[in-house]
Amino acid sequence: MIKTTFFLIGVIIASFTVNAVSADKEPVELVNPFIDTHNSRWFYFNSASRPFGMVNLSPDTNTDKTWSSGYLYDDKHIKCFSHVHAWQLAGVAVMPTIGTFKGHLGMNAYKSAFSHEGEIAKPGYHKVHLDDYGIDVELTSTTRVGFHRYFFPKGGQKSIVFDVGAYLAHGPTVSSEIWKVSDNEVAGVQVISKTGRRPKDTPVYFVAQVDKSFQTFKVWEDASVREGSDRIKGEKVGGAVFFDTEDALEVKMKVAISYVSVEQARKNLNAELNHWDFNKVVSASEMEWNQWLGKIKIQGGTHQQQVKFYTDLWRALLGRRIISDVDGKYMDMTGESPVVRQVRLNDDGKPAFPHYNFDAWWGSHWSLNILWSMVYPEVMDGFCNTMVDMYNNGGLIPRGPSGGNYTFVMIGDPSAPFFATAYSKGIRNYDVEKAYEGLRKNAFVGGSRDHAGYEHNSPAFGGGMQYYIQQGWVPEGIKAKGMHKDGAAMTMEYAYQDWCLGQMAKSLGKNEDYALFNARSKNYKHLWNPETAMIHPREINGEWIADFQPVVDGFNARGFCESNAAIYTHFVPHDMTGLIGLFGGKQKYIDFLNYSFEEGEKRDFVGENKNHASNWIDYGNQPGTAMAHLFNHAGAPWLTQKWVRKVKDVFGDISPYDGYKGDEDQGQMGALGVLMAIGLFEVDGGASMNPYYEITTPIFDEIRITLNNDYYPGKEFVIQANANDPGNWYIQTAKLNGREWDKCWFYHSDFIKGGTLNLTLGKEANQSWGIAPMP
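^ that's the sequence the OP posted. Answer follows.
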């Protein structure tokens, strides 16, 4: 009963509407940040943040770990409000308090109870009441500056705690420093400890200004207040400002951060927030989010579907972070010592693109790569520039940097499909030759692929590239440091990445490389076992592993990264014709794939309790997120239409207790949800030389995608669904720009010119539409 009550409150507050579906609503009004927050992750919950913001300001109810941390919907206390909620990054926890001071005693002492009654969260804004103190807190931000507004009750000593020595999510604080600058300003740095993923300690610098002069500044170390000091440095230190006058009933505070220096943090503050008009910043944030989200406009569908759609799209523009300052300076941590670098500047002296932090592109070829290249090509350009800069700085194209560090997160080189998709779609405002040079290096011994998950030592060995090059497959049992030494998964992903490199090589006129990588892209066949009729891992001696099972009870089956054979057997996005041939033809493949979905549906298309290897289908993790679209490649597009809709419905919840089913990985599952909702996809990730979109049934009556004219000549691409009634999942007929269209795909070159795809839907499958072969 309690959960039901919280759910109703959360939906009403978070989406700011209880009315029927209305085309007049702005996208921001339809975003619900509370979806699936009962089991959050440090970077998952964001409220007061701009698109890709360096600052991600929000309440924290749990700061003790990476998973199940940050803002958890059912928690009863807020411990702090911190400014960085990123993959492997955290920093600058603050808390307003009143009465007896407890800041030096730690978060468990100064935390406050709260409830969802009156709480508001939307893109760029959060409001919550601290019950223990009677303080109303409002939060907003610019890209690099957090903006707080506190309403204190009358009476009592008022303070703002800067817990710069706190443990935040990923590990302890190695050291920190805070000092008084003036009666309105403090500054400092928090050095967050290295982790098994981010190999170097990483400083977060900050400057905080308040609009009311504080009368007292106190610091502490090891829970002991140090009287008479305006500065302190150490491991477990902090500071607080105190307001003793009644004119401090409303206090506003700006907190700017930088990964470079305090001076750079102050530069960010002065450039982005040179006034104290809180409401103006809230409005500006809402306007910016509406501009980004409004690139896709929808009509029709239910209120729930609209809320989930714009929440998915919001997440696709949120999870990865800018780490460069307003002038383009950033900290390079790829070498032995930190080095301050500068991104490329335009002719006007402004940064051409930001420098970004991001988790791996692992699996993004079925989510972000497709969505961004369609709607936000400038974002792909920015990330490509970041990766080329890191190659110039540290010698490798990264697969997931954190705070300027290489992390070697997950497996392989998923940057290869990212670049191949960008290049194939004309997104090329970076040094293409340098990018290809780095990607080619990654595809051989000594490159990024050779690093198993989080294998930081060099030379690395866990990625098994010497085996892959010598024999065409990676075995099990490699003795090396690092995680995810899953030979079958690596082989499958390397083969796809080789194909992506081959496509890029051919486009660049590198024909010998094209022949090499195209041949290597068939390496997946070395793990096809005719007896099990599946991809089957092999031991170092070449024998098939014993006790093989397609599905096992666990997080991953031996040989497969967070997955199993039932899912990775289908991981051939670049050669579905070859895979179908191994199965013995289209009908045998369709039967097997359909059986997998019928079995997977029994567990809502996910691994039970995040055990990704325990189901035939797993839309809760990256390796299986194209499977419903594979029927298109076997000549049965009506089954793609059926199973995409069924998966989409299962992931359509907008309560705090469901919606993503576990791991919305920095926008990837959000982007996938958007693609399913609009009815467009690319099984090969869009990396082919002449990319094309695969069509399935949209859930809205009309979708209008605004095209970026810096990259694409058309104004907009429109998708219309006629007879889009409940249960009408199946495409009966189609027209593309007024022409009868009998294919379940069309080229990206048609998309970028703008136009209209008109679909007529029905309740019964039309098994004669869309069966023409793929390009």
